[in-house]
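ESCALATION

Customer reports they have been waiting on this structure for their group meeting. Please prioritize. Original submission:
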Amino acid sequence: MSYASARDIFPEDILEIIQKYVDGEYIYIPKKEENRIAWGELTQCKKELLERNNKIYGEYLLGNSVNALAEKYFLSPKSIQRIISKKKKELE
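Update from on-call: job pushed to the front of the queue and completed.
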């Protein structure tokens, strides 16, 4: 997210109206609902995490301990437990 000067974006009359409510403060203007995209849609991150979590669950089923998986994947044991629990629920 980048910041832009309202002075460069809005016509003077609209800027004066906005200044009645917010004068010199930062505000966030959300995207329109139809322009929003889900997290991970623009990158492979979502896919990579899904693949990693599937590997973790598979290795857990093969007998690897939560602590060993946490060390291998540089995650906390609690995170490994959450991944395993979520995978179990998905497969039920």
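Sent to customer with the following note: The chain has five helices and no strands.
Escalation resolved.
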